[in-house]
Amino acid sequence: MPQIQMLIDPKVQLHKPLVEIRGLKTQFFTEDGVVTAVDGVDLDVMANRTMVVLGQSGSGKSIMARSILRIVDQPGKITEGSILYHHADGRSIDLAKPRAGAPEVREVRGKDISMIFQEPMSSLGPITKIGKQIVETILLHRNVTKAEAKEIAIDLLDRVGIPRPAERFEAFPFELSGGMRQRAMIAMALSCEPRLLIADEPSTALDVTTQAQILDLIAELKEERQMGVMLITHDMGVAAQVAEDIVVMYHGKIVEKNDVYSIFDAPQHPYTRALLASVPKLGGQRVHRLPDIHELLKNPDTPPKMIPAKPRPPAGEPIVKVRNVKVEFPVGGGVFSKPSGVIQAVNDVSFDVYRGETFGIVGESGSGKSTLSRAIMGIRPPTSGSIEFIRKDKPVANIGTAGKAEMRDIWRDMRMVFQDPQSSLNPKLRVIDLIGQCIEKAEGLGRKDLSERVAKLLTQVGLSPDYLMRHPNAFSGGQRQRLGVARALATRPEVVIADEAVSALDVPIQAQVLNLLQDLQEEFALTYIFISHDLAVVDHICDRVAVMYKGEMVELLTREELAAGPKHPYTKSLLSAVPIPDPHQRNRVRV
Amino acid sequence: MLSFIYRRLLYMIPTVFLVSIVTFAIIQLPPGDYLDTLAAELNDSGGLDEGTMQALRDQYGLGQPMYVQYIKWMKGILLEGNFGVSFEKNLPVNDLIWDRLGWTFGISLMTLAFIWMTALPIGIYSAVRKYSVGDYVATFFGFIGLAIPNFLLALVMMYVAFKYFGQSVGGLVSPEYLDQPWTLEKYGNLMSRIWMPIVVVGTSGAAALIRIMRANLLDELYRPYVVTARAKGMSEFSLLMRYPVRVALNPFISTIGWILPTLVSGEIIVAVVMNLPTTGPLLLRALLVQDMYLAGSLIFIVSILTVLGTLLSDVLLAWIDPRIRYQ
């Protein structure tokens, strides 16, 4: 592997911070008033250390990082404070003072401080070749010819682990996988040998195994180049695995900063404690409920006792029987040509889901888990194989062959909760219609009865019945997901399929929704099919877990078997790639 | 990319075939034929007797069933490039149309250039400086441009040109140059007058494109990749041109496809009002007197131009946006 020469002597100024932030205040001037996103932050960023900024969405961590580079979107403005950056040659500049696009700010951007972002798909120019985007950065800040820049770019692509880099130099972003795109993004960020790399949720949009690779790569490059890394994440596991220092942000303020061991072993601030407590942990004693952050914050000194989970009632009769199900997608083909092939999205999968259990399906993106759930719902019927739905007082329904009227009835007994609470709720409808639509006609309810029913559902999912007339955009992410759950429950279903239902939520909110799902399961004797890529969540809530890999079910485990250690090599590697929120375990070997 | 172009060319064949059938059917739609119109016009001056009528009908093949006429017409076009004969002028269609088609095409291309040159910078400015005074001014004129029918604009402009600048109006060149050979002065005269039809025909298109460009660019301006480019240290102007504008350019390219037919059809009334030597007035007259081969040929050729324009815009789109090539 070619070593890229370092322009900066790493021994110099090790104890002087690269960036000194003092009293930083970033505010957004919106129509509804001034929102203070970053509220008086003091922070020193050191060279050759990995600092993790931890916080929920909306805590201001991302805006704080963007303020350093002055790339906060309109209508955001730095209103107070200073961001002192010390150049390698001894000059210092307050980045907060000049206007955002000033040459002295642009000189720092991309050259001394570079940044990588969460969504590698949307963060790279969609119709510009990868190579060109990297070369562009090099030519901007370094005094080299085009040919030299190309050589540097190809070396970098090679360094970040992209196979056949000369070929990939000519690739467009959409021709690469998510992990490869993020690697290209890192190559671009490194192209001018930055002294500080800011990584804003660099691995959140990636699968666990890819996430592990990307985090390893960043750690490796940091050692190699002695650069400072500021990593922004909401994932406690990631923080524990890579951080040397941790900064916890809450409501725009830094509530705690310390080294990683102190934070995890002896958190001082109640918020840090609450945050750590609400993470579902892989393996170990199963708890009945995850602690609620509001309760934790109310009585910070008396954390509620962890109640071990009640033993689950023995499995009942099968309620969904999946037999040899295959789902194929045609590839290619147009108006005049036949499809050139098929993709086996789901290949010969069989299992039973028992009444009253929570059945988990895990796998990485592209493993076919969502396609499988759509096949069970009958949205995309299987190409071959059968899916039987055995309801309480109704005849057995066969999903593949059911007619339209029968499907409509099936969809009343089998409901779905979707991943993105933002886009799965019609923004034009009021809550009463959003939730009540599916029962209003079918049960012939008048407006008054309907509002009573919906109000009751709202109470059951922990929302106030006063919200009946509101629109969904008046709710927070967690509340919206509660609406999604209420909508699923409206028809009193027997089975609820939750497709990544908590993946888009922050950890404390995720804990609340998981608790809610468990409470409702007991109350309504529900059966869940719970689809997730997050093994810790699946481990917390599921009784049995099916592991999907490239369209096939490689393993079906009970929770106890998963805790004892899976047999299949894929499950093992999946398990070992999950970042564990415990810094003492960061040197464990990945499979 | 080559296979993409090849495939698109193949798709053109059935399209053009269908267009020719539809064209022929449309010009046959009004009841009666050219001879009926002719008879009606000549009625006052004594009229034609039945025998002459029948002889003419046989000569033009008007008595035959529609599909026979169609096959005859297509055969002439495909084998000899012969578009038939204009009944009214008693001349081959070929002699009548190419000159005028050239003007139509030339004016259309220049209008397209005018539309792009005004809409692109104004659209970008409007999006980047959203809700600024400049944006409101551009929006205001944009809506006015959209709302005013272009023949009215033509009349107003002609009035202003005549009343305040003393320019003779109508036609592409001043009357004194009409039958002169093409000298430098004549070109100068042409250039001093041709902007008027171009502005008249192009205004609404430019106004529409400004709005489209603004909306598209606004969608792109706040995308994460723009932040990435900014974080690289690029200057605002070069990152704007290199990323969001390039992505937002797609509808601009697509305009070639839809602007040709609207120009050709929108231009008819303007051409009549401004007395331009384009296909518009010819087509109008041909339709009025049911001069079916002339009208049919004009419609057919314009349709082919549209299909070609669409092809051109598709190829350009695929060239500029690699994502399209692979779908």
What does this structure look like?
The complex is a heterodimer of chains A (591) and B (327). Chain A has 591 residues and is α/β, with parallel strands linked by helices. Chain A is 34% helix and 24% strand. Chain A is globular. The mean pLDDT of chain A is 85. With 327 residues, chain B is mainly α. Chain B has 15 helices and two strands. A two-stranded antiparallel sheet of chain B has the order 1-2. In chain B, helix 1 packs antiparallel against helix 14, helix 7 (150-165) crosses helix 12 and helix 8 runs antiparallel to helix 12. The mean pLDDT of chain B is 82. The chains are: A alpha/beta (591), B mainly alpha (327). At the A-B interface, helix 2 and helix 3 of A face helix 9 of B.
Sheet with the most strands: spatial strand order of chain B: 1-2
Low-confidence stretches of chain B: none
Q: Name the shape of chain B in a single word.
A: globular
User: In oligomeric terms, what are we looking at?
Assistant: heterodimer
**Total of DSSP H or I helical runs spanning 4+ residues of chain B:** 15
Structural category of chain A is alpha/beta
